Amino acid sequence: MIFIDTSIIMYAAGKEHPNKEPSVELLKLVAIGEVEAVINVEVIQEIFHRYTMIKMKEKGIKLAKNIMRLIPRIYSIELSDVIKAMEILRRYDLTSRDAIHIAFMLNRNINEVCTYDKHFFDVKEIKAYKPEEIIKRYRK
Length: 140
Known about the structure:
Elements: E1 2-4, H1 6-13, H2 20-31, E2 37-40, H3 41-53, H4 57-70, E3 74-75, H5 79-91, H6 96-107, E4 112-114, E5 127-129, H7 131-138
Parallel strand pairs: 1-2, 1-4, 2-3, 4-5
Helix pairs in contact: 1-2, 2-7, 3-4, 5-6
């Protein structure tokens, strides 16, 4: 099982960018069941936040609904995740959102994340992959 970071969803849904096509391709693999994916409610919140900030609330709501259909394994954030995130923040130069994601993963024995966020690649307790690496793994 692999945690899909918000960056993948945002690139897939966004304008043309070098990271768009690999992100779309990865989500296609999720859609057909080749990649077993998981997210947490914080990913949905990040989508809402971004699209609200750019005055595109309806698009954000539509994207959130589509992601909830695409990735049915969506977990809540628990107090234990917040406590673990504090520990992670002390050890790594991360945003609080990334620390929450990592804590969530560690507390559920999810050790892989697909992301373009460079900070995840510095965390020793998990393994971060770009979509291109995951696609290559499943398209052998």
